[in-house]
Amino acid sequence: MTPVYSRIVATGSYLPRKILTNADLEARIDTSDSWIRERTGIVQRHISAPDETVSMMSEQAARNALAMAGLAPEDLDLIVMGTTTPDQIFPNSATMLQERLGIARIGAFTLEAACSGFIYALNVADKFIRTGDARRVLVVGAEMMSQLVDWSDRTTCVLFGDGAGAVILEAAAEPGIIGSLIHADGRYRDLLEFPGGVGRDFRNLENVYLQMRGSEVFKVAVATLGQSVEECLARFGHDKSELDWLIPHQANVRIIQATARRLGMPMDQVVVTVDHHGNTSTASIPLALDAAVRDGRIQRGQLLLLEAFGGGFTWGSALVRF
Ligand code: UT7
């Protein structure tokens, strides 16, 4: 039997209209534009409106990707959504997205891997296509991190933003997704978490917020991502010199620069959106990918390396022939 691969046929994204600048934050908390820029590279972030939800933002990103592909929602046969901030505990937000797209019957599920969620979702969707169980999959990463942070805590609130990104994966005779690797290490839970949920303080979440031991996370992220990208290249038989673009998770420009250095890639081969989006967790890679596809930087046939690291810890990389 001829092997089946998956390839990205289209990308899409959505960012909420409201922009929160570093100057806006300076007016609210004890921080400064220069601290935020120097330590993180962030200049502004988008914040969802009070009536917006992850499934609403996902619908916009999905329709954007469908339009690029020239496809209708009826052409999809699976929805895989990564999110840490679902509309509700259940039904899962991918079913809400499915309903918004006006389609029924096809499988639709969410998975949660914090900032690595998009790499996890891509990994899973790729396997559905490779096994022949699906031929066209909508893969979404969407987050409303603004709802998880304590807006009086300067160590976390300046970092995050909201948004949604999507790709459409289709069966193809050639890869596409050359390969992707996912990893996790639950021993690091205390360094980055939202310590509330059904198993913990569920009825009393009012004062529960995202918590991060930033500089410790930073050190593990830099070391782990360096190993992760090298592992991905070695596993799938490519050399770093072949890469056209690095599309990293957008948490901190200093982490991104460290990974680029490890790969010997100049920053003009790295897609950076953290300056304008902040850290949108699961949404950050598809948002960055869509930005660089739409402005013409990423061209068909180029070799892309995607990588992410986040709470759990979780991490992963994907090597993609676009
Ligand atoms: O996406 C998932 C993975 N997440 C990440 O990868 C994030 C990883 N961590 C980071 O990006 C960085 O550690 C941060 C940006 C969160 C912090 O940068 P840092 O260089 O590690 O700073 P720090 O936490 O060591 O804090 C240095 C100082 C502290 O003051 P003292 O104790 O030295 O007096 C903080 O209180 O900076 C202070 N500080 C701030 N000052 C102004 C922390 N946040 C702020 C702020 N404005 N917003």
TrEMBL record:
Keywords: Acyltransferase, Cytoplasm, Fatty acid biosynthesis, Fatty acid metabolism, Lipid biosynthesis, Lipid metabolism, Multifunctional enzyme, Transferase. Residues 110-186 form the Beta-ketoacyl-[acyl-carrier-protein] synthase III N-terminal domain. The keyword Acyltransferase applies. Pfam families: ACP_syn_III, ACP_syn_III_C. The lineage of its organism: Bacteria, Pseudomonadati, Pseudomonadota, Gammaproteobacteria, Chromatiales. It is found in: Cytoplasm. Pathway: Lipid metabolism; fatty acid biosynthesis. InterPro entries: ACP_syn_III_C, ACP_syn_III_N, FabH, Thiolase-like. Belongs to the thiolase-like superfamily. FabH family. Residues 250-254 are annotated as: ACP-binding. The last Arg residue of the ACP-binding site is essential for the weak association between ACP/AcpP and FabH. This is Beta-ketoacyl-[acyl-carrier-protein] synthase III. GO terms for cellular component: cytoplasm. Catalyzes the condensation reaction of fatty acid synthesis by the addition to an acyl acceptor of two carbons from malonyl-ACP. Catalyzes the first condensation reaction which initiates fatty acid synthesis and may therefore play a role in governing the total rate of fatty acid production. Possesses both acetoacetyl-ACP synthase and acetyl transacylase activities. Its substrate specificity determines the biosynthesis of branched-chain and/or straight-chain of fatty acids. Residues 234-321 form the Beta-ketoacyl-[acyl-carrier-protein] synthase III C-terminal domain. The active site is at C115, H249, N279. It comes from the Bacteria. One of its GO terms (biological process) is fatty acid biosynthetic process. It catalyses: malonyl-[ACP] + acetyl-CoA + H(+) = 3-oxobutanoyl-[ACP] + CO2 + CoA. One of its GO terms (molecular function) is 3-oxoacyl-[acyl-carrier-protein] synthase activity. Homodimer. Its EC number is 2.3.1.180. The keyword Lipid biosynthesis applies.
